[in-house]
Design a protein that fits this description.
With about 150 residues, this protein is an all-alpha fold. Helix content is about 80%, strand content about 0%.
């Protein structure tokens, strides 16, 4: 069940990567970028680590015998995975910086609510999602800078 939970989370990154075509990456290369924009390899590496943490978090919640209903918590978790998978096709595939910003703001809210719901079921599961919230906060700043500098 742990491997399955991790694969569910990693699939968001795989779907996002498969949805991005080479010409979209060329478009991205020509955008004005802030100095704090990390190289692509670092961005991808951080997301892999975050997907692993998300998978472990999901596993903990699924295994937890809890009197608290997990339904809403799992719906929130699913929404954050969906929004994670959606961001790259919106930002890169549609070449929509504003759409990417809107998507990542919704992603931040979904992660925050997932942390809140997971906290009621398992504190360690919620703590494992905090790095995602911090990273997405940072990427919101990057996305906003892209929007300002490239419009």
């Amino acid at each position: 069940m742990l491997v399955g939970s991790i694969l569910i989370c990693l699939s968001a990154g795989i779907i996002g990567k498969l949805a991005v075509k080479e010409e979209s990456l060329i478009w991205y290369d020509y955008l004005f970028k802030p100095a704090l924009n990390p190289p692509n390899w670092l961005f991808q590496g951080i997301w892999i680590i975050l997907y692993l943490l998300m998978g472990v978090s999901l596993y903990i919640v699924l295994k937890k015998d809890s009197f608290i209903s997990k339904k809403l918590a799992l719906i929130m978790f699913g929404s954050q995975i969906f929004l994670n998978a959606l961001w790259a096709p919106v930002f890169f595939g549609l070449r929509s910086i504003a759409g990417g910003l809107a998507t990542i703001i919704l992603l931040w809210a979904a992660i925050y609510l997932t942390i809140y719901k997971f906290y009621k079921i398992s504190i360690p599961a919620s703590v494992l999602l905090i790095p995602s919230l911090f990273w997405v906060s940072y990427t919101i700043g990057l996305n906003l800078t892209f929007l300002i500098w490239n419009h």
